[in-house]
Write a structure and sequence with these properties.
Largest sheet: none
Distance between the termini: 21 Å
Oligomer: single chain
Strand content: under 5%
């Protein structure tokens, strides 16, 4: 066994992946907010609620994530370090990005921010998921409902996203061409990122190889 690839040596790298991914995820959402061309379904909801409550969208994101964890209890989902970190860091980094980047009015700048936000979101998704510290509160809701109802992940995910999107739009959240672009692009981008950042399986030692050979 190559001890240099053991769990103890991998932990620092995984922690860096986790926190870098979560911070970048929140920053990507902030870029899409500044683009003002449409947000991801959950951020449409967050923005709609924030508009009515007079809170920042990042604060609403944190509060929504915390409330979603309560829904995990009857679904018997188990939060991990990544789950709790997701609740806190994504919203904080979203608000931090909004404080650093001003509103944009030129169409070219807004399109550039939208494209950068979607690309960064896909990168960040693979980065933090590959760290394997637990699902985020929204993904945990999806997997819990999938297990309890027996419905496919695709159906459960679609119904959840359509529900929050409709609620967010009704509350005045930013639905637009960016929402459609996000829906089309995020799956392939996240999958490519996840493949890139997931470490290859540890090579089997001489004994293991002999056992695994047919």
């Amino acid at each position: 066994m190559d001890r240099s690839q053991g769990p103890g040596r991998q932990l620092p790298r995984r922690l860096v992946q986790l926190y870098a991914g979560l911070v970048l995820y929140g920053a990507s959402a902030g870029l899409m907010v500044r683009a003002d061309l449409g947000l991801s379904p959950w951020d449409v909801f967050h923005q709609g609620v924030a508009t009515h409550l007079g809170l920042s969208i990042g604060t609403v994101s944190v509060a929504a994530g915390a409330l979603l964890l309560l829904a995990w209890w009857p679904l018997r989902e188990r939060p991990g370090l990544g789950t709790v970190s997701n609740v806190i860091l994504v919203g904080l980094s979203l608000d931090a990005l909004l404080a650093l980047v001003s509103e944009q009015h030129a169409p070219a700048s807004r399109v550039a921010l939208l494209c950068a936000g979607i690309l960064l979101n896909g990168l960040a998704t693979g980065l933090y998921l590959a760290a394997s510290f637990g699902a985020g509160p929204r993904d945990g809701l999806m997997t819990g409902l999938h297990r309890v109802t027996g419905r496919s992940v695709r159906l459960v995910r679609t119904l959840i996203e359509l529900t929050v999107l409709a609620c967010g739009f009704a509350l005045g959240g930013g639905l637009g061409v960016g929402t459609l672009a996000y829906a089309v692009a995020i799956g392939p981008l996240a999958q490519a990122s996840l493949r890139y950042f997931t470490p290859p399986p540890r090579a089997a030692g001489p004994t293991e190889g002999a056992i695994l050979r047919p």
